[in-house]
Amino acid sequence: MANCSAARVASYAAPYDVPERCTRPPTVRSGSVRARLAFDHLGPRTVQVPYEAQGPADAPATVVLGGISAGRHLAPTTSDPSKGWWPGVVGEGDALDPARHLLIGIDFLGGKTEDGLLRPVTTHDQARAVAAALDELGVTVASFVGSSYGGMVALAFAELFPERTARLVILCAAHRTHPMATGIRSVQRAAATLGADTGQPARGLALARALAMTTYRSPEEFEERFSHRPLHPGQPGRAPARFPVEEYLDARGADFARRFDIERFVALSESIDLHRTRPVSLPPDTLLVSFDTDALVPPWLVDELATRSGRCPRHVTVTSLFGHDAFLKEVDQVASLLKASLPRTPEVVR
Amino acid sequence: MANCSAARVASYAAPYDVPERCTRPPTVRSGSVRARLAFDHLGPRTVQVPYEAQGPADAPATVVLGGISAGRHLAPTTSDPSKGWWPGVVGEGDALDPARHLLIGIDFLGGKTEDGLLRPVTTHDQARAVAAALDELGVTVASFVGSSYGGMVALAFAELFPERTARLVILCAAHRTHPMATGIRSVQRAAATLGADTGQPARGLALARALAMTTYRSPEEFEERFSHRPLHPGQPGRAPARFPVEEYLDARGADFARRFDIERFVALSESIDLHRTRPVSLPPDTLLVSFDTDALVPPWLVDELATRSGRCPRHVTVTSLFGHDAFLKEVDQVASLLKASLPRTPEVVR
Q1: pTM over 0.90
Q2: What part of B 195-224 touches A (C-beta under 8 Å)?
Q3: Which chain A residue lies closest to B239 (C-alpha atoms)?
Q4: What ipTM did this prediction achieve?
Q5: pLDDT tens digit string along A49-89?
Q6: Cα A36 to chain center, whole Å?
Q7: Which residues contact A108 (CB under 8 A, 6 or more apart)?
């Protein structure tokens, strides 16, 4: 058990400097680096790592990583004006402001590529991909804000490359997963695989995603949001009964199946269940954030990481109706926690 | 809000007599009654209702109903020595002893039969089937012990036939379901249907059941029971990673698919989500039992039934690791509660 005396905590200083003023203007760099990585199970493989960086080149480098359906595009740019995956938290004037940080994102590895099938892929493999993108950008040391799968990747990066890790803020992620979450994800993968095997991949993937959605939210939220009464009770021999929550889950599943590849889904889902870092590799001064209704990464699991790390990290559990998805929904709380924890330039750089 | 003064509670006397001594020996009657029932959605239909009754004909009639995979056979008999679905609770020397009760069970209606496809079917339809079996057995008034789906059916019986309802003990059931539970069951039905539509019904049904198993237990139990580490991490291009919890869920799913019909599964699953009784139809002197980790029928939902009934029923919430399945696993607690609540013959009849 760590000795969390005041003296020990005070000695944990972040190993980087925050400039008082950035001299370089914000720029956007978007591309793909071809890198040879030492995969945990696949062995040495040459792959493409798509990345995007926006901000002043001398602002604190901050890698921002999200769930399995998040990607490298973090905030609107002139060439890509679409919102990123974390609106309200990442963007101009937000907690993670491209005028005050050098914000870096990647597209995760996994699934079918022109280099072959990347599976199994681990969170450590993703961390190696991040390192390759940082090399390409000329970044030596970076802070990380990782949510969900991205939080697992950030933990893996800190374990592989401690000397390149400044500060970590980890939301809805831990050093391992737990069996119920693994069980439900294994059912998702089996549903996707059933669809793929029977010539109905979109249907299988939509089903997997519908199930995933039930794990991202909370029973309390659904009780408030949906009537339990059927839309219609079903017509004998013709149509089954339909329920409001079912319409919602089906719509979310169908959306996902239109834009996501089934092989990629299975590889990344499996990657979550293969994830494992040693708690003692947690860097000093980490902020861990959990949400009380998160069924996938419950507070007790994040607490286990905090306790076993021996590092006395700060662990904040936020009350929310929104379960695992709370990192996306509780924008105000998340923004405050990030502003309180991460180094960024004192002045906005234009 | 009900006025639960002592005077009012005391006036709720069960409308039946318990004989001091039964004069008739225990017998077994097993068969099927052909009855014309007024289905809620199917209209008037003639169906077979399989039933089994064991015990002295003049002992208190006690209908015992379980989950969707439970059936009419409650305890070993000479013609069928197999255990019933509720060992430790129903059987010789147990809380529900065929030497002290006239124990009655039915096979639920639903799915493909020689009379055509029975779907949609409601819990009130099941209650009408129970009434037909009671008529066949010459039983006018019965107590009910209903767990899970069987508890819903018991509530529906009390709503339709209050004059035939003695005492209710309801475990893991309420007047309605809640949207998260409906959402997850809708995914189960979609998985089964995907299998049926693509020529893989066993695979679809096994998948549905694997998912159902995750809802019947608790994350806490799985955390104690299964390692989170993979059995093997998967071989690139050949085999996916496998996890201990996954082996368990797959085995339970495959077992179920061998012995259960997919149409029946879908009809009964849908029946749960169509279930609705008016709380004010709850009979006097009902015992409601919930388990703290039951995600399908959480204590707050049973509390809603208790409060809205206006009847001041006794509601006991039992602490258990086993979630919804606790009614099967917490044998000692369930037995005590039943012995404390149900009328039975003072002496064992041989």
Answers
A1: yes
A2: 195, 197-200, 203-204, 207, 210-211, 214, 217-219, 222-223
A3: A120
A4: 0.92
A5: 999 999 999 899 999 999 999 999 999 999 999 999 999 99
A6: 23
A7: A68, A71, A126, A129, A149, A153, A268
